[in-house]
Amino acid sequence: MHPLQCVLQAQRWGPLASVSWLLFRTCRAQSSVHGTTCPGPGRQQENGVQKDFSSRLAAGPTFQHFLRSALDPQEKPDVEDPPPYLTVDELSGRQRKVYLETYGCQMNVNDTEIAWSVLQKSGYLRTRNLQEADVILLVTCSIREKAEQTIWNRLYQLKALKTKRLRSRVPLRIGILGCMAERLKEEILNREKMVDILAGPDAYRDLPRLLAVAESGQQAANVLLSLDETYADVMPVQTSPSATSAFVSIMRGCDNMCSYCIVPFTRGRERSRPVASILEEVRKLSEQGLKEVTLLGQNVNSFRDSSEVQFNNAVSTNLSRGFSTNYKPKQGGLRFAHLLDHVSRVDPEMRIRFTSPHPKDFPDEVLQLIHERDNICKQIHLPAQSGSSRVLEAMRRGYSREAYVELVHHIRESIPGVSLSSDFIAGFCGETEEDHLQTVSLLREVQYNMGFLFAYSMRQKTRAYHRLKDDVPEEVKLRRLEELITVFREEATKANMASVGCTQLVLVEGHSKRSATDLCGRNDGNLKVIFPNVEMEDVSNSGVRVRAQPGDYVLVKITSTSSQTLKGHVLCRTTLKDSSAYC
Ligand code: 5AD
Ligand code: SF4
């Protein structure tokens, strides 16, 4: 079934349809294993368990089970009753050790913590040592073919681990989570028989059940996309207690349907997490002493909390000037400016960033807020993708080069000193040399501080796959990509040179990886700043000399720059509030 089809079904018929489809998937995975493949090592010995399990599965869920699954996620109890075909004991992790490996974007890093939070509650332990793992879960990415190839290669390595496993240990279970599970579905189960479970990005709550089914030697999958899953009540576990910053997921999915992009198919429809639950998480992080929060989502600034009826007024959405959407205009809900306003008030000493936004959703109230609030970083990611209006139209981005450039000027006027970054794709369908030169000229014109540049990789299911031709030869794509990287570096070096002689506020992260005598941190624009680890004055305690620790704010005078890093010497330890007077 096409994922959008299943989204539509869920929309029309609600959770009843969703749950039955989910169970159907498990049964199908089961029948393929029983019908056509030999049980692997360790599976035969489980036949007794399997028989018992199968007879319970045949009895199927009760009506009560469907009713309970229809509950609002907020109302769901922490520990759910087991499905009728599993006992509480079978559902629990029984201290099995889980090894999680993350690929792809920051959203996947956050998803890994959500998956872990679910498993931890269920009685699993986490290990960082692959050799001692009982369960290996790969959180995967599908955005480009190369990302998927990396996962296939990793699966071949893990296969060896599984076959070499001592019979005295519990059988090793391997799972594919996230975008690749969603995109390839049973193709993964069929191609790699040693994969035991598949969980799409909206199915992490189901991991304990999927692993319990896998315990009996069967493959299990849940790749159902949801219209409302935001994991609002699943607080991700902070993995590094010494960390200075954390990511907070505020929305999931994407409705934009850019013609090259697989994301709307793997992560489903756009939905926002309720403001109250985001604020609760940010407060907790502030209490833990974290100094920076990055609001995360595929389209963070399209945020729209419509969870309460009173939020849903008829006010239509202000888009950036000259921008349009591929979808019907939406109305009402609490928007990104509201969220940013409240998040930035939680702790004035906590830096706020957000990624990744879409250029269409930068109304003046958002820009004004970024300008006004000391703790909202003056850094905007503004993915352009191409500098050619013709290519932008083929990409269905909803803007022309001219509208994009006008937005850049407007942002720079509204937020003086703002740092800009962007994403670009080289060699999209039909891109001519002239189009490519337009992208080069946009890089020169805007002079970004940071950039993420990619060669186009055609993805099945996307509009480009169905309607356009991937006609730029691979070597031309790579040559154009190289050219874009060179130009980007030249311009970023020039842009960063402007900071030489300036004093910047830096949030200290720890020791520099390259030198034991240096510390490393990030400036407001999110660029890495390196400076010697020496004693300095503490502005809050005059006369006291201190050494900077991770999580401290320090003022650094910039002395040299490259395209990606700044270097300088430290002046003093300060606070975010006090520092606004210096910069
Ligand atoms: N090929 C190459 N790059 C892509 N991106 C998204 N889809 C593709 C694709 N099919 C890039 C875009 C996006 C970033 C996250 O990845 O630049 O902004
Ligand atoms: Fe993909 Fe476009 Fe959505 Fe970004 S905005 S995730 S590029 S479809």
Radius of gyration: 25 Å
Beta-strand content bin: 15-25%
N-to-C terminal Cα separation, in Å?
Answer: 56 Å
Main beta-sheet annotation: 6 strands, parallel
Mean pLDDT: 86
Q: Helicity level, as a percent range?
A: 25-40%
Low-confidence stretches: 1-49, 66-70
Number of H/I helices: 20
Domain Radical SAM core: 240-494
Protein name: Mitochondrial tRNA methylthiotransferase CDK5RAP1
GO molecular function: 4 iron, 4 sulfur cluster binding; metal ion binding; tRNA-2-methylthio-N(6)-dimethylallyladenosine(37) synthase activity
GO biological process, one term: positive regulation of translational fidelity
Key terms:
binds iron/sulfur cluster, disordered N terminus, 583 residues, 5-stranded mixed barrel, alpha/beta, Mitochondrial tRNA methylthiotransferase CDK5RAP1, 6-stranded parallel beta sheet, iron, binds 5'-deoxyadenosine
Question: How would you describe what is shown here?
Answer:
By secondary structure, the protein is of the alpha/beta class. Helices cover 38% and strands 19% of the residues. The chain is built from 20 helices and 23 strands. It has a six-stranded parallel sheet with strand order 2-1-3-4-5-6, sandwiched between helices. A five-stranded mixed beta barrel has the order 17-18-19-23-22. It has a three-stranded parallel sheet with strand order 7-10-13. A hairpin with a 3-residue loop joins strand 22 (553-561) and strand 23 (565-574). The longest helix is centred in the last third of the chain and has 24 residues, at 474-497. The model is unreliable at 1-49 and 66-70 (pLDDT under 50). The site of iron/sulfur cluster has 10 residues, from helix 11.
